[in-house]
Amino acid sequence: MERNLALEAVRVTEAAALSSARWMGLGNEKAADQAAVDAMRRTFDAVDFDGTVVIGKGERGETPMLYIGEKLGTGNPPEVNVALDPLEGTNIVAEGRANAIAAVAIAEKDTFVRLPNTYMEKIAVGPKAAKAIDLKKGPEENLHRIAEAMRCHVEDLTVAILDRPRHAELIQKVRGTGARIKLLQDGDLQAAIATAFEGTEVDVLMGIGGVYQGILGAAALRCLGGDMQARLRPRDGEEVDRALKMGIRDIDQVYKLLDLIRGKDVMFAATGVTDGDLLRGVRFFGGGARTYSVVMRLRSGTIRFIEASHHFDRAPLY
Question: Cβ contacts of residue 139 below 8 Å, gap of 6+?
Fold first, then answer.
């Protein structure tokens, strides 16, 4: 692909962020989610490409738009696959909390791993600790290996973990190492990306979260030189059966970064909806709003932070 489609996809994530941010703190997660989906779908219609959703809001028939298999764009070349999350953090926005984000990843066909929409155990780090992680090892050994790679003490590390009952044992083990912990109420995608940037106060992401957010995070970390390993953690027998029907023979298989996201031309764009570990949220002012986004491309190694002012009398009202 000659064009950097991430520079066009950022208009899509901006639209989703602007629309969903209107619902911040209003207690209506469904409305926030639908606003993001509608805005993202409308904006994708103007992107000059032939896109197919491979990670979306669900399967065909489960959702009216942005489902897996849906076609996006004008239908003109290039032909690409699209992974998206119009709003990671519907509850975050509804309750006015941190780390909500709109994200899109674009890559060549057959680039994204095909996995069922279940839970996934993840460990993610930035470039300095790439190749130092091993999900088959315990959190204690991983943190010591990460600290060695980053040339710091374990006590200097900050580990982001979703604040869930399922993580009680993990939190206890991490505390035992002396590493600091940042408990996330929701939104581990932005935290995974933040591990690749100094100054975000997130060095490691550990724990169990969504599969699709994990794959989107892997796409960003490919562009950033970071690393991730993951394995499925189905919640029940039905999800195990779904995985087996998709051809997955080993539920406990550890997926490395190149298993999760292959290809040589991966592009990623994300816009903050509420303030988070990496991106500020939408700021409204009279007649417009300001957004904060990150755009990256694997092939060129380019990483851009974009602060944009949107004037609603000269642009679509999202």
Answer: 170, 173, 174, 177, 206
CATH number of 119-260: 3.40.190.90
DSSP letter for each residue of 103-162: EEEEESTT-B----SSEEEEEEE-GGGTT---TTS-HHHHHHHHHHHHTS-GGG-EEEEE
State in words which class domain 6-109+265-311 has.
alpha beta
- Residue-range domain boundaries for the chain: 6-109+265-311, 119-260
**How far is the C-alpha of 166 from the C-alpha of 28, rounded, in Å?**
26
State the pLDDT at residue 246: 87
Q: What is the pLDDT of residues 236-253, one digit of tens each?
A: 999 999 889 888 989 999
CA 206/CA 226 separation, integer angstroms: 14
Instruction: State the chain's maximal CA–CA distance in angstroms.
Output: 55
pLDDT in tens, 117-164: 899 999 999 999 999 999 999 999 999 999 999 999 999 999 999 999
